[in-house]
Amino acid sequence: MSVPQLTDAERDAALAELEGWTLRGDGKAIECTFEFDDFVQAFGFMTRVAILAQSQDHHPEWFNVYNRVEITLTTHDAGGLSQRDVTLAKAIDHLL
Ligand SMILES: C[C@H](O)[C@H](O)[C@H]1CNC2=NC(N)=NC(=O)C2=N1
Question: Are 3 and 77 in contact (CB under 8 A)?
């Protein structure tokens, strides 16, 4: 499935709407770190993100240690950032 990468203008507009998400150094992904009270809260969040990701057929790269969850969103099919990353990021934010 072909997904277009965002243009620079589309990317900047999306980032302006996404609080806490930043552009990765290479410009091909967005990243956000979430902190919770403990591991159970963090893992519960990850479970809800997993269900969301599956429903959107768009999956995060992520790292968890104890109460911290670092999420990176990029579109492998596009080789960079696409609208699918922005849509998933917004949906993740709505979980909180
Ligand atoms: C076939 C399936 O739709 C694709 O492999 C999907 C699955 N999840 C995905 N997740 C992400 N992050 N990028 C993709 O390009 C992607 N592609």
Answer: yes
* pLDDT mean by block of 10 residues, the chain; 96 residues: 91 97 98 98 98 98 98 98 98 97
| CA distances for 72 relative to 32, 75, 80, angstroms | 7, 10, 12
Looking at ligand 1, which atom is closest to the CA of residue 60? 12
**Residue 77 CB less than 6 A away from ligand 1:** yes
Instruction: Choose one of 57, 72, 92 to mutate for the ligand 1 pocket test, by most ligand atoms within 8 angstroms of C-beta.
Output: 57
User: Residue 12: in which H helix or E strand, if any?
Assistant: helix 8-17
Task: Judge if the beta carbon of residue 57 lies within 6 A of ligand 1.
Answer: yes
